[in-house]
């Protein structure tokens, strides 16, 4: 008989709703519980989708009363206060949105709890599941790309977002909340980082009440394999656009990514230059959710687990730390 996983979601904002919608399309998983504060967010989603499940506004009560095999934690960064560890202690497998925490101490505690309780984990780095990114990883693995040399990335938008997002103490800043996707992509494609220097600044929003998040950032990265990288972020760009573009130069290939699903690969290690274009419309949230469920079922190897989420947290923390030290180099230990 096919095993059906019982899933619960903590936090019913945009990300929680997105993951819930994904799971409703999948076999092998059933939404059994939703938890949100205010509780109306969870009730509204259940009513709109004609979903029969338990509804809670208290996480501890949900843990006690609901049957849960997998938990999706979709909370704003400031709201993490031990939910991960409580679920891990019960042997519940966990998908958690990025950033996993606002401090290295908090992130390390999560990673240790996962390892101690031997649970499957995955962090919400959906860019890894883009068609163009997957193809590029194949060219790295089979040697076609050659040696990795340089990673360049830009995240651009222009939005005030919600009140909690504008408060650096509650969200960590744009580097933590948004640009982290491109920092994770650097780690995924180039390998672990060894050192970074960076600057962050609020240049366009100083007069906005309650806005303490940086709207401009830049960093330089040295990777452990000797490759180099640079990542820039802006919340002063074109309104109603969210662009995450990156470029990777390898010994035998240069890749220009419009996003995770669209890229142009130019092969330079052959007698004649050859160009390959990748264009797809994969739903990366659905793909990452499907991968996580398949991992819990033993059908895939873990990817973007909590340890990798901790590596991303270390990198963005180092960028901010460097800025506080006037751009001095910070080791990523």
Uncertain parts = none
The CATH class name of the largest domain reads: Alpha Beta
| Secondary-structure class | alpha/beta
Number of strands: 15
End-to-end separation in angstroms reads 46 Å
Question: How would you name the oligomeric state of the polypeptide chains in this document?
Answer: single chain
- Biggest sheet, strands in spatial order? 14-13-12-11-7-10-9-8-15
> Could you state the order of secondary-structure elements as H and E?
EHEHEHEHEHEHEHHEEEEEEEHHE
Strand content: 25-35%
Radius of gyration: 20 Å
Shape label: globular
* Overall pLDDT level: 97
For the record, what is the CATH homologous superfamily label of the largest domain? Dihydrodipicolinate Reductase, domain 2
Count every helix, treating DSSP H or I runs of 4 or more residues as helices. 10
Share in helix: 25-40%
Reported CATH architecture of the largest domain? 2-Layer Sandwich
According to CATH, what is the topology of the largest domain? Dihydrodipicolinate Reductase, domain 2
Characterize the biggest β-sheet. 9 strands, mixed
Structure notes:
With 333 residues, the chain is of the alpha/beta class. It has 2 domains: 5-126, Rossmann fold; 128-280 and 306-331, Dihydrodipicolinate Reductase, domain 2 (2-Layer Sandwich). Helices cover 34% and strands 27% of the residues. The protein is built from 10 helices and 15 strands. The protein has helices spanning 14-24, 39-48, 59-65, 83-89, 104-117, 131-141, 168-171, 174-190, 284-296, 306-324, and strands at 5-10, 29-35, 54-56, 70-73, 93-96, 121-123, 148-156, 193-201, 216-223, 228-234, 243-250, 253-259, 262-267, 274-279, 330-331. The strands form 2 sheets. A 9-stranded mixed beta sheet has the order 14-13-12-11-7-10-9-8-15. A 6-stranded parallel beta sheet has the order 3-2-1-4-5-6, sandwiched between helices. Helix 2 links the parallel strand 2 and strand 3 (54-56). It starts with a strand and ends with a strand. The model has no long low-confidence stretch (mean pLDDT 97).
């Amino acid at each position: 008989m096919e095993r059906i996983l019982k899933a619960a979601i903590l936090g019913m904002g945009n990300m929680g709703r997105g993951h819930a919608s994904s799971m409703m399309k999948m076999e092998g998983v059933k939404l059994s519980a939703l938890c949100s504060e205010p509780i109306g967010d969870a009730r509204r989603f259940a009513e709109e989708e004609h979903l029969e499940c338990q509804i809670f506004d208290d996480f501890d009560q949900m843990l006690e009363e609901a049957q849960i095999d997998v938990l999706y934690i979709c909370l704003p960064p400031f709201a993490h206060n031990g939910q991960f560890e409580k679920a891990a202690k019960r042997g519940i497998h966990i998908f958690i949105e990025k950033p996993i925490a606002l401090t290295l101490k908090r992130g390390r505690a999560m990673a240790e709890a996962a390892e101690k309780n031997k649970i499957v984990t995955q962090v919400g780095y959906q860019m890894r599941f883009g068609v163009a990114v997957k193809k590029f990883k194949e060219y790295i693995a089979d040697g076609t790309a050659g040696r990795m040399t340089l990673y360049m990335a830009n995240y651009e938008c222009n939005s005030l977002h919600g009140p909690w997002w504008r408060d650096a103490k509650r969200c960590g800043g744009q580097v933590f909340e948004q640009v982290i996707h491109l920092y994770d992509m650097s780690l995924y494609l180039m390998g672990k980082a060894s050192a970074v220097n960076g600057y962050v600044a609020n240049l366009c929003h100083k007069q906005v009440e309650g806005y303490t998040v940086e709207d401009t950032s830049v960093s330089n990265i040295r990777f452990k394999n000797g490759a180099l990288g640079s990542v820039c972020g802006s919340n002063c760009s074109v309104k109603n656009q969210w662009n995450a573009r990156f470029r990777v130069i390898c010994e035998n290939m240069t890749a220009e990514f419009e996003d995770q699903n669209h890229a142009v690969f130019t092969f330079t290690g052959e007698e004649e230059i050859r160009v390959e274009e990748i264009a797809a419309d994969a739903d990366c949230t659905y793909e990452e959710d499907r991968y996580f469920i398949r991992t819990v079922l033993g059908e895939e190897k873990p990817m973007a687990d909590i340890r990798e989420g901790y590596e991303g947290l270390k990198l963005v923390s180092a960028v901010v730390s460097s800025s506080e030290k006037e751009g001095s180099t910070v080791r990523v230990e």
